[in-house]
Amino acid sequence: GQNIDQPTEMTATEGAIVQINCTYQTSGFNGLFWYQQHAGEAPTFLSYNVLDGLEEKGRFSSFLSRSKGYSYLLLKELQMKDSASYLCAVRVGNQGGKLIFGQGTELSVKP
Amino acid sequence: SAVISQKPSRDICQRGTSLTIQCQVDSQVTMMFWYRQQPGQSLTLIATANQGSEATYESGFVIDKFPISRPNLTFSTLTVSNMSPEDSSIYLCSVRNQPGQGYEQYFGPGTRLTVT
């Protein structure tokens, strides 16, 4: 079976740093994705990791450890607009694969 | 990045009826997927829409309930058949290119369905 775990919700302060963790146990692995989803909107792509290590893109970074089945999304210099749901997804399967999503982490950024 | 449109954007339907949702992409894409997002939940994959052949359904989803068409590389439809209130959800189309042509997967704006 496929299992992807994230905390349900987190709260952080504007200007701070927050780390959202994701652990996974899946049959096959072809990459890990993070998406941001604001209420009432479609998910938007944030990051992709397929090799171990840290990928940095502006205020957002994502880390992957395949041996541990673990990833995190790091958000720096938090802004109020970062309040959203953050979805961890693993690509599994052959012939291009399909994305399986975790339950999502609802992040609230407070002043 | 691919631009995806869906029709309708929202609808309110009576139980027992069917609704067909359209997904149009502005460029040819190899893979198209249909997801469901129930209120307050994450995304659940319904099926992979295969061009020229029957869709591949995930566990818990069947063709009689969610028939899918994909006549070409830019268009797909999902029908929600014999609807019940439990089908109230957001339905999202998603696309990606074949391996070697980019790894990103994009999502359409979604169709918000309410069944009364």
Summarize the structure.
The complex is a heterodimer of chains A (111) and B (116). With 111 residues, chain A is mainly beta.
Give the terminus-to-terminus CA distance of chain B: 36 Å
Name the shape of chain B in a single word: globular
The share of residues in helices of chain B is: under 10%
SSE pattern of chain B: EEEEEEEEEEE
Strand content of chain B: over 45%
Largest sheet of chain A: 6 strands, mixed
Kindly state the mean pLDDT of chain A as a whole number? 94
Query: What's the alpha carbon Rg of chain A, rounded to whole Å?
Result: 14 Å
Strand content of chain A: over 45%
Structural class of chain A: mainly beta
Q: How far apart are the first and last residues' alpha carbons of chain A, in Å? A: 41 Å
Largest interface: A-B, 20 and 22 residues
Low-confidence stretches of chain B: none
For the secondary structure, the number of strands of chain B is: 11
Could you state the order of secondary-structure elements of chain A as H and E? Answer: EEEEEEEEEEE
Report helical residue fraction of chain A. under 10%
Structural class of chain B: mainly beta
